[in-house]
Design a protein that fits this description.
single chain; mainly alpha
Length: 64
């Protein structure tokens, strides 16, 4: 995946962080946990994108 997938993942992480903070400030554990879930999910997806990039780089190196 490319730039748009990475941007989407970073946006999801930021949205999760905002929800988490809002839940903490309003003492809403449901909103806080939902924010944590979004933040972690975006981070895992971002790590997957980095693995794909590394695999592509290895593939390009081996083709030379």
């Amino acid at each position: 995946m490319g730039f748009l997938a990475k941007l989407k993942n970073k946006t999801q992480r930021a949205k999760g962080r905002a929800k988490e903070e809002a839940g903490h400030r309003t003492r809403d554990p449901y909103l806080e946990s939902e924010g944590t879930k979004d933040r972690v999910s975006g981070g895992v997806k971002q790590a997957g994108e980095q693995v794909k990039d590394a695999a592509g780089e290895v593939r390009r190196t081996m083709d030379r």
